[in-house]
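[scheduler] slot 2 assigned
[scheduler] job type: sequence-to-structure, two independent chains
[scheduler] chain ordering preserved from manifest
[runner] begin chain α
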Amino acid sequence: MKLPRFFAAVVCCSLAFQAFALPQNDAAHPKRLRIALEDAVSMRMHSVEPEYPKDTLADHVSGPVFLSIVIDQQGKVIEAAPIPRDEWPPKWSFSEDPRLRDAAIQAVKQWEYKPYLLNGQPVEVETRVVVKFKTEPPYSTEGRLSGGVIGGIIGRAAPSPDPALPRPQRVSSEVLEGNLLKRVDPEYPAFARKAQIHGEVRLQAVVSKTGVIKNLRAISGHPILIQAALDAVKQWQYKPFLLNGEPAEAEGVVIVAFRL
């Protein structure tokens, strides 16, 4: 009777170890990051123009196609899908014709990018692209546009950022936590402790190139706890985040827990 119990104990210990180890491994490998459209443009090394479907050309179907794409650690586009209509930029009109969408997806999946580096390591990224189809004369003898189809990023889809003011790179809470060098615990407000008020405060933080908190604002949490969380996190310091080997600003959510 002792032997089966021994095996059961071994199995339980093994499962407990795996349950503990998996989250740590996940934390060591940050989840997919989202980058701005203009950042993806600067990383693009090779593009393929879409083939204009003949039947859509004959029907004079045109317009931009708005896609969400995923770029893997080698710079390959591994996913491409249309953006839902309710996520289109305000005042923009995009083609919903499935023939144009399919042509755009087929072309974009052949695009190649420079690997995106976070803290010196390549990571998967998600971004958005706009592929434009135009039907304007003159036409060629085959019924195609003689100048070819304009397929690629629309330059006016988003203004180019000022090089002196680069946009912070969005990172997960786990990545922020992994780069934290100095933590200052918040002072629990006496009234909140007496009233048994507890919970989490979520703050949106921008970390500068030198690893200090640059901007900080509250997203959620009990109003009595928010100021204490802000006062503490303002003093936190991080290891500088690296983007393609250079220090870069990072933006993410910081979670401060108040427990009784």
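[runner] end chain α
[runner] begin chain β
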Amino acid sequence: MIKVSITKCNNYNIDNLTDSISQCINNLGGILNYVQPQETILLKPNLLSDHTPDRAVTTHPEFVRAIVKLLKNNKVTPIICDGPSTINVEKVYQTTGMEKIAREENIKLVNLSDYKINEYIPQKFVFSNISKIYISDIINQVDGIISLPKLKSHSLVTVTFGIKNLYGLVPGLIKSDYHRFLHNPVNFVKLLVEILYIIKPKLRLTVIDGIVGMDKEGPANGRVRNIGIIGASEDTVALDTVLCSMINLNPDTVPLLRFCKEKNLGETDYKNIDVLGNKVKIENFILPQTHITNYIPEFTAKFLLRFIWWKPVIVNKKCMKCLKCIEICPQKTIKKESKKVKIYQKNCISCFCCNEICPYGAIKIKFSPLMNLYYFFVSIKNKIKNFLGKKH
């Protein structure tokens, strides 16, 4: 059976982290089951954009430090790298704390722009408007990869755990082009499956930072909340499956996991997964409102999505005119006009790249009247349920 390990951890104290991460990996047989002395291992955290660690948008730097120390203690050479969707990668490394960790631990922190880009032909799906997938050659310059994702919700793909974290190995602003060509969430999810297929031979282990995570409208502007877990597995699909079950989300309703199952890229049947350590439930994990589209059959989607939609809007009181949203927008629908930044909705494809990149939480999601009505009744239903539960 495929093994997934879950351990409890409630803070980022380095001694506590080191013990908890070691216990989590030891449940799987120990770190030397996945790496060998003298190897060079790429640590791939989630560094979405230049948010400070307290925002819970990025993998916490002390979490990365604990993995670095574990590898160095076993004579393994770690390097840190990610491909955030911005020109100023150095600022992302500085703000997220990665530059400090690399300096203090005397390890390399590399920029994907320093490596050539490799082209891959899609193997699992046929795309009408892309013929090649671009991945940084860094995956061929290391012996293996350990993925260090952050446990968060995600407005486009429902959740971002282990599988989605690998998208960061697509260099920089190429990711924006993929959002433009594959703005339909189903096609975008298929791209993530292709990326997993390409990277999987080098992927040794996934260890997720679920100590402080995010729900509601993640991955950048949701609700920061204490979750208190660390999860690990050599099968990132199995780990994602277990985490979905822990937040009371049926893995069969998550398109990303459905497609991974269809293409045999990992275990999605809970009966075939041995969950070791702490089998806990994450209570009241609130998914983004957009996740209801997962339940819309593809053959009716075009009709229903006329009435069920969501668009980004700028809250000008919060906007600091950093213009990162303009830089990243794949459709170039965001413009600076006089003293305001404006999104022209006509050509917006609702990829939410702007929402993800904004460091000030100035881009919110506006929902269609039908979606607002649906969630109004859902909230009433939940209040009645909670009231009746308290009475009994």
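[runner] end chain β
[qc] chain β: Residues 2-289 form a domain with the Rossmann fold fold (CATH 3.40.50).
[scheduler] slot 2 released
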